[in-house]
């Protein structure tokens, strides 16, 4: 892949580098790899739970240190473009994180170890 630099009149964001991180994440952790044994079964369904999980990953990678920082990031046009869906609120993320049980946390760790060996 060639990288080309060009001028633009578009608004730039400090989180523009997340595009590469998103591509890597989608190759290492495609949405299809997640099941109910990895993520909580909430009313919103597995697809939205994967979106929430990945939005947390992108947020923490962009420098968010807490859930309130994710709320601040949601006003960044670049961060919203990366998430390609609505940005979830800190309350939604908090509810999501509190819904994990111990087994799901262990299964996510196993999934992460498996992904690292596949790289």
Which characteristics define this entry?
119 residues; mainly alpha; 56% helix; 0% strand
Task: Provide a concise account of the structure shown.
With 119 residues, this protein is mainly alpha-helical.
Give the SSE map.
Blueprint: H1 18-28, H2 46-61, H3 67-73, H4 77-83, H5 90-98, H6 102-118
Helix pairs in contact: 3-5
Q: How would you characterize the overall build of this protein?
A:
With 119 residues, this protein is mainly α. The chain has helices at residues 18-28, 46-61, 67-73, 77-83, 90-98, 102-118. α3 (67-73) packs antiparallel against α5 (90-98). The relative contact order is 0.16.
Q: What would the principal axes of the Cα set say about the shape? A: globular
How much is the radius of gyration in Å? 15 Å
Compute the number of strand runs.
0
Helix content: 55-70%
How many H/I helices? 6
Low-confidence stretches: none
Secondary-structure class: mainly alpha
Kindly estimate the percentage of residues that lie in beta strands according to DSSP: under 5%
